[in-house]
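Contributing new records

If you add data, match the layout below exactly. Sequence lines come first and carry their own label; structure lines follow with theirs. Keep one chain per record. Anything else will be rejected by the validation script.
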Amino acid sequence: MYENRFIMQKKIIVILLSVFFSQVVYAQINYGIKFGMNYSKVTSTNNFTGIEIVNINKFKLGFHIGLVAKIPISKKISINAELLYSDKGSANNKGEKSSYYEFNLYYIDLPIIVNYELAESLFFQIGIEPGFLSSSNFVDYYKEGILDYNPFDFEMLFGLEYHMKKVGMGVRYQQSVIPIFSSEYRSAGGENQGTVKLYNKNIQLYFTYLFRSN
């Protein structure tokens, strides 16, 4: 199921990106690098009847690095198109050592963001972030295993960026709008007990450096 959805979603993203870049290819594009920290968490929702599932996952410290292009649209509005390698996931490293575990999710992310200048050099950001799962694993005190996660993620984001000439810094909040994992659980007798869905949540702190700045 995930493989078919992944292929279709990948085709849609490629088409959208092709149309987008074809419209801005002649624009005055500023480009550079972007790097920073991810403070991520995997959250869960469930529809179990009479059963409470508590979110015990904690925030995990990760990183991201990649390329950024800034495309001016008007005096106050510009668009970011980014290509990032991003380390996300979740962890629980509190309490007993034997209770330790960590989800590691590595994505190729393609954020597309609209920037609006609120004040001089200060921008409000809103956008989307399609992501493709590059690799994943689960590590705990006893073993290491492979995770069966959705190969595609789609996040909404908003944030603030302070940018002067070639150097910028910013903060973003990101949240999955489709589950990165979904599983239906049944009793020993085959009765449907409910479905658990997992979502990415991420706070991103970052710096940018533009090789070209107009």
